[in-house]
Amino acid sequence: MSHVYVFATIIFAVTSQLIIKWRMSLLGSLPAGFSRKAVFLFSALFDPYVVLSILLTFLGGLSWMAAMTRFEISYVYPFISLSFILILVLSAFFFNEPVTANKIIGLVFIVAGIIISSRSI
User: pTM for the full model?
Assistant: First the structure.
């Protein structure tokens, strides 16, 4: 049951990142000039979905805190790498981002690392 905290952390983080990508894609490109960038980003903070993303990030932090009461960080932290897999798959699905051979090879190494690390407890 304690692994639920770890997986909740991953789900909150991935969902938050997908929401940010979606909303920023709709809001447009970052303008030139420091002051225009600051105004653009500050105004984006009032987008309800950006607020939701920030809330999900906060909830992910709370889940991570709960996980840290149950596990050694050296054991549980590699599981966070599962977010790379979810982001790759979901960004291809939702945003039509390319899935290249290099990305897949990288993910294979990440999964191998998770398996090796998780067996060390």
Answer: 0.84
